[in-house]
Amino acid sequence: MLAMFFWAFVIGGIICVIGQLLFDVAKLTPGHTLSLLVSIGAILAGFGLYEPLIDFAGAGATIPITSFGNSLVEGAMNEAQKHGLVGVLTGMFEVTSSGISAAIIFGFIGALLFKPKG
Question: Quick check: 112 and 101 in contact, CB under 8 A?
Fold first, then answer.
């Protein structure tokens, strides 16, 4: 069990270090960095490499934003097998809709409860 925590920490940390390097060294904006990390997760999922990473690192691979790209590709591929081309579009939204909805709802609640400094 200790090894599982260790590898989750290491893999999650490496993903975060990559994001930080994109900020500091490549001088990318947060939006560009976010898009690039999601795209990397999607590409790894498309080649079948992200699921083994999740099996190995657990939360270290499912919590960072790269997992969102993985979810988009997995949802699209699963629904494409069932419904063809239309399933590609609907599958992406079906798998990720709960996370996006939660982010919107909790963001709204946070905006109601707290006042920004400025």
Answer: no
CA distances to 6, 19, 57, 77, 105 from 32, in Å: 29, 10, 25, 25, 24
Distance CA 5, CA 77 (A): 30
- List CB contacts of 59: < 8 A, sequence separation 6 or more: 8, 12
Handedness of CA 18, 20, 21, 22 (dihedral sign): positive
Number of Cβ within 10 Å of residue 78's Cβ equals 14
pLDDT, tens digit (0-9, with 9 covering 90-100), for 44-95: 999 999 999 999 999 999 888 898 888 888 888 888 888 887 777 787 777 7
Q: Tens digits of per-residue pLDDT, 5-44?
A: 999 999 999 999 999 999 999 999 999 999 999 999 999 9
Which of 80, 77, 75 has its CA nearest to residue 93?
Answer: 75
Q: What is the pTM of this model?
A: 0.76
The domains of the chain are located at: 2-113
